[in-house]
Amino acid sequence: MFAALAVASLMPVAMAAENVGGPDQNLQVRHYAMTIGRDGVKRETTFTERVYRRNDQVWTERLIAGESADAHDHGDDHSGHSHPDAGSSPMWVRRLADGTLDARLIERHQRRSIKVDSQYYGNIGFNGSWGSTFFLSDPQSLKSMRAIGAVKDGVQQYESKRGDLTVRVSWDVNGRYPRRVESLDAHGKARRETLVSVIEAPKVLPWNTLAGYAEIDYSDLLD
Q: Can you give the three-state secondary structure of 63-78, one letter per residue?
């Protein structure tokens, strides 16, 4: 559901991140996916997210047309509980001193920070990898890909082929993020592309706007 996971899913399986940090980045991530089913129907999906990363924390937020930032979060009431929408709720991930991750869904509408333990990561579409969360594509994954040519304009091209699937990555060497990731099959029936661009930093980082938010556990919202 989130940028890090969407980009990482195009990459070869990665080992644990060798480098856990990198330069601060403010990024806009645009996702596109196309499939042609056995029924001949072409299906296309697009969405855009913004990612803010600083040292040991990353904020990922879906942009939703017609809604302000303060209106992104909508819980669905069910059996007296309000369940967070993992697609539209921002995710805030921190890497703690011992290397463990503190992952939270943020609901501005209800002013609450929802801590998600690792056993529930699958429920919210989070892969639990700091490398793919912080860098969007874990740099360790690039080691299993073939470098194409030399670095040009600050970008190193990579490619890998697994069966009918080809994955290409344009890696920003200094910025340490993928400017573009593309995955396509040899039959033209599936294609995914992620485009990443630098944007201006927000006046206030989003995790500094959470004063007064209630802190609850995701497990408390389960039936």
A: ECCCCCHHHCCCCEEE
Burial class (CB in 10 A: 0-12, 13-18, 19+), 131: buried
pLDDT in tens, 5-49: 456 555 544 434 445 679 999 999 999 999 999 999 999 999 999
- Long-range CB contact pairs, 69-74, < 8 A, 24+: 69/108, 70/108, 70/109, 71/108, 71/109, 72/108, 72/109, 73/106, 73/107, 73/108, 73/109, 73/110, 74/109
**C-beta separation of 189 from 41 below 8 A:** no
Domain boundaries, the chain: 3-140+198-221
User: Could you tell me the maximum CA-CA distance found in the chain, to the nearest angstrom?
Assistant: 58
